[in-house]
Amino acid sequence: MILVRVLEDVLGSLVGWKKKEEDCKRAEHKTFLTVDHIQKSQYTGTFEASSELICLGIQSLLQDDLTRPFEIAEEEASLLHFPKERLNLPFYIFGFAFRWGFLFPLRSCFMAFALVFLIASSGICVIVNAKMKYFRYCGITFAKLFNLSTGLIVSFHDKRNRPRFPGVAVANHLSANDVMTIYSGCEYDGVGYTITGQSHGGFVKYLYKYGGKLTPLLLVDRACDKNRNALKQAIVEYTKSKNENSYPVLLFPEGYCSNNKTVLQFRKAIFDGQTAIYPIAVKQNSRFGDAFWSENTYIPYLIRTMTSWCTILDVYYLPAMYKKTTENEEQFAKRVQHAIAAKLSMDALPFDGKLKSEKERMKYKEKLRTCLAEKL
Question: What's an example GO cellular component term for this entry (predicted)?
Answer without folding.
Answer: membrane
